[in-house]
DNA sequence: CGGTGGTTTGATCAAAATCAAGTGAGGTGG
DNA sequence: CCACCTCACTTGATTTTGATCAAACCACCG
């Protein structure tokens, strides 16, 4: 699949775009780069003149407190442009780092601004993508602010399953997810030790099997029930 | 101050707008409405065809879990358009409610879309506002995911003080903030009882005095130190 | 075959939740 | 004008959740 096609597949989950829009996106100059796991894409404090499209692999956005605690803030996958915001926010306020070996596509701000001016529908779709990301943050806040450990983990996995399903990245209930239990802990605001105990509980309850590089969901219903997960906030349809 | 001026004051904290842009904003039709404290502005699940500008007073955005726990997600004040997102997200995923008696201005989506088309710089400024809100969510996640109770409260108050200062809403270190300790607890992911103990600790440490309808900051330095607060993420300058 | 990064488990501790019972100020109706 | 009510705040006692500390374990890799 060509690089722009990943972006198009992603945008078409939540947006209605016409052929001319798709053609304009396909014509976008994209420079490919292959990255090792753990590579920094942007750092807190950076200024940049390009956006990074995740073609293959995963990336985490995170912030670190003064006393060295890391919080993962978002998880990005094929088709996401996690730093689309850099188009209008000039100094990055969080770090972005690959979680896996990854292929990314770099798109210059100038080209994106040109595209936005020529194709207002695409501009709206991109704005909308940033708003969906914000909606995901809102739910993330509720997850760690008002849910217990078990529910937090279930809710996060349910979200990832939902997003990956819409992109066709799931085969027989197995997410090809490169998350260590340390990452999981940093995403849901727990310690690794406690995250491990939660994972164990979910495994023993027959809900999921969580391993390095793979999460297998055994009982979707139960997973959503434990997490209190309702996918509305992902706005995964042009009508929502 | 006219309604549009509140919006302009707010936008000019983070954006550079030229006189023609300001004139276009001033020309925007805005219908005034006065609301009692606790009025619902939009509900989860709503579809709407207008955006709400907060002219005077405060509003909270919140979500409630299946088991009835409320999490406050954002706090809005004079000049904010908290549901600007509704321009591109069609179904609301959170509730928005006034915290005080408030004056709001309603602006139709059609008028906003027209403005965006005529004045691309204004469109960019509005997009940027939604991105700053997202940045604020990111920090909110870190606050409740990776900070202790004392630090959470200090960090939130430091943020509000910073934002209100830039809008000129603070007089001799006193924020005219209509927050009960229940609200505070729901914002930082604590129980009201524990929030109260934290407030007491901060008062006894000579950092702040927190009362219904008023927070007085006695030691800004200490407040920021306890909260680990760094205002970069608020992007409160056109350069950031 | 030893190292390393990730996972697992147990024991103990600390932070915050929960339960319970006041206090106190402001607002309303008799 | 007082009595009472309500909403917010406060405090103490106890329990729970998750953190911390410590030690294996395990699989993959060079």
Written description of the protein model:
The structure is a homodimer of 240-residue chains. In chain A, helix 3 packs across helix 4. With 240 residues, the first copy, chain A, is an alpha+beta fold. In chain A, a hairpin with a 5-residue loop joins strand 4 and strand 5 (70-76). The first copy, chain A, has a four-stranded antiparallel beta sheet. In chain A, strands 8-9-11-10 form a four-stranded antiparallel beta sheet. The first copy, chain A, has a three-stranded antiparallel beta sheet with strand order 1-7-3. The first copy, chain A, is built from eight helices and eleven strands. In chain A, 43% of the residues lie in helices and 21% in strands. The radius of gyration of chain A is 18 Å and the shape is globular. The interface between A and B is large, with 47 and 46 residues.
Question: Could you name the key traits of this structure?
Answer:
240 residues, four-stranded antiparallel β-sheet, homodimer, DNA-binding, 11 strands, alpha+beta
Chains forming the largest contact = A-B, 47 and 46 residues
Count of helix runs of chain A: 8
Helical proportion of chain A?
40-55%
How many strands of chain A?
Answer: 11
Topology overview:
2 copies of one chain form a homodimer.
Chain A: H1 3-14, H2 19-26, E1 31-35, E2 40-42, E3 50-56, E4 59-64, E5 70-76, E6 95-98, E7 102-108, H3 109-118, H4 120-146, H5 149-166, E8 170-171, E9 174-175, H6 181-188, H7 192-204, E10 208-211, E11 214-217, H8 220-227
Antiparallel strand pairs in A: 1-7, 2-6, 3-7, 4-5, 4-6, 8-9, 9-11, 10-11
The structure holds a DNA duplex (30 and 30 nucleotides).
């Amino acid at each position: 699949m060509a690089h722009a096609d990943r972006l198009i597949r992603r945008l078409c989950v939540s947006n209605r775009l016409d052929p001319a829009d798709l053609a304009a996106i396909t014509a976008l100059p994209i420079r490919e780069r292959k990255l090792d796991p753990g590579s920094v894409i942007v750092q807190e404090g950076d200024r940049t003149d390009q956006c990074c499209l995740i073609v293959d692999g995963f990336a985490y956005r995170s912030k670190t407190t003064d006393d060295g605690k890391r919080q993962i803030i978002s998880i990005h996958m094929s088709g996401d442009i996690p730093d689309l915001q850099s188009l209008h926010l000039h100094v990055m306020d969080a770090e972005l780092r690959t979680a896996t070996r990854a292929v990314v596509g770099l798109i210059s701000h100038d080209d994106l601004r040109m595209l936005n001016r020529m194709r207002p529908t695409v501009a709206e779709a991109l704005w909308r993508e940033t708003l969906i990301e914000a909606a995901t943050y809102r739910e993330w806040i509720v997850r760690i602010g008002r849910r217990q450990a078990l529910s937090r983990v279930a809710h996060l996995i349910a979200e990832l399953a939902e997003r990956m399903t819409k992109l066709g990245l799931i085969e027989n209930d197995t997410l090809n997810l490169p998350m260590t239990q340390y990452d999981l802990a940093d995403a849901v605001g727990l310690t690794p030790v406690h995250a491990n105990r939660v994972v164990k509980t979910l495994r023993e309850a027959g809900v999921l099997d969580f391993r390095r590089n793979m999460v297998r969901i055994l009982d979707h219903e139960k997973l959503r029930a434990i997490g209190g997960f309702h996918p509305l906030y992902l706005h995964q349809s042009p009508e929502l």
